[in-house]
Amino acid sequence: MDYLSTAWTGVSYIVYPIFYILFLILNVLSIITAPLVHLGHYVLSGCLYPIHILAKFEVGFQTKMWFNR
Fold first, then answer.
1. For residue 67, which of 22, 32, 53, 59 sits 20 to 30 Å off, Cα-Cα?
2. Is 0.85 topped by the overall pTM?
């Protein structure tokens, strides 16, 4: 049973630095891309703004059609 513990310790010493480096890379990438994500959010909101305006008129249009029945 001592071999299993030794093998697991060896594997953890090999795998832990790999995961640690990947974690650091992902954190740096998330910090770098954060402004781009916000910019994309603003661009998408700006593109969808006309639909938001048209949705305000939908309620009046549906009410008008309901009275015409």
1. 53
2. no
* Residue 50 Cα to chain centre, angstroms: 24
**What are the CB-based long-range contacts (under 8 Å, 24+) for 32-35?**
none
Tokens at residue 51, please?
């639909």
Number of domains in the chain: 1
Q: Look up tokens 């309901």; give the residue.
A: 66
Q: 9-57, pLDDT tens digit by residue?
A: 999 999 999 999 999 999 999 999 999 999 999 999 999 999 888 888 7
Look at the block and give the residue holding tokens 């700006």. 46
Domain hosting residue 68, numbered range? 1-69
Residues 69, 59: Cα–Cα separation, whole Å: 16
